[in-house]
Amino acid sequence: MPQRTPVSIITGFLGSGKTTLLNRVLQHPAMAGAAVIINEFGKIGLDHLLIATPNENTVLLASGCICCTVRGDLVDTLRSLDCQREQGQLPPYDRVLIETTGLADPVPIMQTVVTDEHLAPRYELDGVLTLVDAVNGRQQLDVQPEAVKQVAMADRLVITKTDIAPASTALLARLERLNPGAPRLTADHGAIDARHLFGTQIDAQAGAEALKRWLPEAAVSQAETRYRLLPAHDEAIRACCIYLDEPVSTAGMTAWLTALASLRGANLLRVKGLLNVDGEPVAVHAVQTLIHEPVTLACWPDADRRSRLVFITRDLTREQIASTLDVLRLRASRPDAPPQLLDPRAYAKFVAAINKIR
After folding, report:
1. How far is it, in rounded angstroms, from Cα 307 to Cα 299?
2. Cut 0.85: pTM above it
3. Which DSSP helix (H) or strand (E) runs through 285?
4. Fewer CB atoms < 10 Å away: N or C end of the chain?
């Protein structure tokens, strides 16, 4: 299968500086082959920028860059980009950046990229980059639920407008509580090293440092302890880290992820984990009802063989999550039986655990 093109989502509340950041990022040599889709009306003239649309004419500039206005359906836009690339109507591109509107929920975009039958073989989700306004961010988080979700869903947080005012201690604490595992970066007038923004997913060859960046269990555990007893505006949003000493089964992993995402997907903003699946290290990742394909690592990154799971949830407590974990140990009736053939006693435990998820 040919290498899939990574897709990164750039989001942030109204006025957070997404277009300013995009202007600066696209000046970086590493972004010379980026295609950009803007999820709103607008015109920007930038070097090395491809903007595609399924409904408007596309103009090929003398420099070889493509510029136009983007609107319409994301699937059609990405399919059109891919088709034009294959036919030589567009310069080759090696990355897609999607800038959302300030009120956007990034989850439907993530689901589209991962689950659409036409897009999934050609594109892969790289991650979500959320911009937070140092001047207005705290107030926006107080009154705008869209801003809260954008922060909670982020793989990277970029604090903007620090040239006007530094990010307050209260804002930084708020970000840590909402998404303690996301690295926080600062953009000065949109200036930031693009190499720090992308490449957030895990692969089979990931070592200890890559896994630590992808699954920041220590940061989540520390934040959980620090903010457990403090009042906050975002009491419904919780981050927690759970460890399991015993290995889990393939059947149990599949059943647990499916049940949790299907029955409590609206509350499960994000889950990442490294599971010990019958001795093998397997990275799992789910976003609400979207379950990414588990990745079996080539080797354990360290001597720790515990399973570890990091959650960001809404109206879902650590205790409620912990009550479902017996499903992970679900086993087939025989070692050589397919996962769907379950031991009756194991199935009874499974049903009991599922009732706790509902």
Report:
1. 14
2. no
3. strand 280-287
4. N
